[in-house]
Design a protein that fits this description.
heterotrimer, A mainly alpha, B alpha/beta, C alpha/beta, A: 2 domains, two-stranded antiparallel ribbon, 11 helices, 68% helix, 3% strand, disordered N terminus, B: alpha/beta, Rossmann fold, 6-stranded mixed beta sheet, 4-stranded antiparallel beta sheet, 38% helix, globular
Amino acid sequence: MALMNGVTPGQYIPSDSWLHKLDPRCKILLTVIAMAAIFIHTSYPAFIVWTALLGFLIRLSKVPALMVLRSARPILILVLFTSALHLFWTPGDVIARIGFLKITSQGVVMALRMALRIFFLVLYAGMLTLTTSPSELSDGLESVMSPFAKIGLPSHEIAMMITIALRFIPTLFEETDRILKAQTSRGADFESGGLIKRAKAYIPVLIPLFVLLFQRADTLAAAMESRCYRGGKGRNRMYRLRWCANDSIAVVTFAIIVAVMSFALRLS
Amino acid sequence: MLIEVKSLYHTYDEKMPTEWPALTDISFTAAGGEIVSVVGHTGSGKSTLAQHLNGLIIPQRGEVIVDGMHVAAKSPQLRQIRRLVGLVFQYPEQQIFAETVEEELSFAPLNWNVSGMELKERISWAMELIGLEDSLLSQNPFELSGGQKRRVAIASVLAADPQILVLDEPTAGLDAGGSAELVALIKKFRRSSRCVIHVTHDLELALCISDRIIVLANGRIVSQGTPLQIAEYLCRNKVKGLALPDVLSLSFELREAGRTAGITWEPERLAAMIGAPR
Amino acid sequence: MAGGTSLSLQGAEFQYPGSPRKVLRGVDLEIRASEWVAVLGSNGSGKSTLLKLFNALLIPTQGICLVDGLRADTQDAVWDIRSKVSLVFQNPEDQIVASIVEEDTAFGPENLGLPSEEILRRVDAALTITGLLDKRKKMVSTLSGGQKQRLALAGALAIEPSCLLLDEATSMLDPMARIEFLDIIKRERKAGMTIVQVTHRLEEITAADRVVVLECGSLVWQGSPCEFFDKPDEFFARMSFARPPLAVLRDLLVKSGAVQRETPPDIRRIREALCL
């Protein structure tokens, strides 16, 4: 029985929602626009707009809000780290002290802003991966990158690598789990001891994993060749991407919202 | 009793939409000197059960008692239990990481604070039990053949000197010679009043080597008993995922037709029962 | 699918680059169209290497390999050969490329550059044959081991080959999954597919037309499954083969005269012979 602790954060959840049915290139474009806008606008009114927009997208996608929020789990540590940096190292009006560390009011504001910005970036990216199947995603990326193939960007190869990497994520989880359990059964201790000791404890997990992955790469390459793979030339797709009216509407609408918002925020 | 399992239940992802009951009301015992096989289809809960026996999984409901010690979270005895129960996973050669066979075999004993003379003795004993030459100790385990790698992996568990050996599909992917060697190992191991729990979907193998068999289906025990009792049960009841060995199936049909007196999975005994044509 | 592919090895030898050891030595083997040939041998006998010559994954270092008359030992015909001859490996995890069932099955036809409707048709057909049609939109990670191997088989069948090479394709499967897998192979064979099956499970060779035995890279014996099981114990011991219990039973029954000599070690035939 394939066991994973729940679903991988951000993993594709199939559905027939309006958002799911959009062309992946459209969604990639929307995500890029959104992420650029989030980067630029970090004021409080902006965050309210981002939250409202995210809520609207979540409703549109029919994906449970909990699943969307979960996609931010992997970056929790990163957020804590950057928030801490801003909290303790921003100069300004000191409001508290912890040992030799100073917390300023500007620090609190910066930390909050940074944290929210990162969260929104990840959550919007999460909306992309939750509503777009791995192969749609890689097809979309390949298509978006293909104009650059003329200047030497290996767009097909990159897309193929993404497809394969995504496909192996669940398998990797399972195999790491299995090796961890095997070494634990042999008395390995991953819990106690200092940082260095604990890091060393992972060597008997990493080595077998790498050996497994290298062997797999060999056999997978042979299997792909056996299935007549010879790179991107001459390949066709079962489902061709088709840009339709909904996609244009989505991009235009989104661009207008962002433009209006930028204008409004500039004014205030 | 070396192992006692009492009313064990286990559900994965409790209280979540992906909730799945892996084990329901499992109870059985295993004594020293016994080979107990747990037989069932893929997904019947065999591996989940195996992982309870060395404390990798803590019982959610019910008890697992190893040599008088309860498997419980944060118990100081958990490490002791893990030392007593040697769990060998499927395709164990995938856990090999060391540069020499000796280093690989030393891993478990060193983790249990065994060193020096005693360590060397344990390694020798494990190599002997598994049927490998001591000259292999200095070799790189990654350069050995598939069959040898598997034996090294099993030896690395034996080197910890477990009283109970739990094997999850030990013959998976092995050819006839490799399987035979593994069976020999199992029989040698239990001689010193140690116990073997053999988890498998190979019913034929289980019938041939076990003292007792436990049949799992969908997380429940559908039958347990001696090989003959289980053979009788399986001839009369279809159990999910288990195919009757050909010889047993034939012997059952012959007995039902009144041509022979009993059932068996051994071809020599069946041939003797059929006898010469009149 | 029209008639199966015919395969031929003439004096084929193989050595890995830089290695002095000959994995295959002077192998002569003719496989007719639509024949089912089982290849047996202990580990290191060269059986996997032999298989890989037939789909041009490996090129013989000496000798000739022909696939339907095309030379497999030159680069020109490689892709033509691979669209006729499909190879299924042992571990499904090493073969599946996409995250969603139907997308993985489509990989082969997509590589052939076929029109989208044709790709869809082949994917439908392959998934139907392997009983996975209702799972076509599911994530591969939700499949059981047996289903994954059937998916790998679907991927091979989607190329619409006329020859299937099986490299210990059932050795990681549980008994039920093994039976399901072999049933599909038997049906393909009936439709005319050439089958070359490397296995170490002797129970699986009873469906084959011919058995070929390799030892240390040389072809040491070939014959029918019945003739194979009639070989003496020393032969079996030397090759590290174990007679399946049913074969042992059949031998004993033949000796005692309870069944005729012609009865193969197949359960249906033995049942008939015992008048059950």
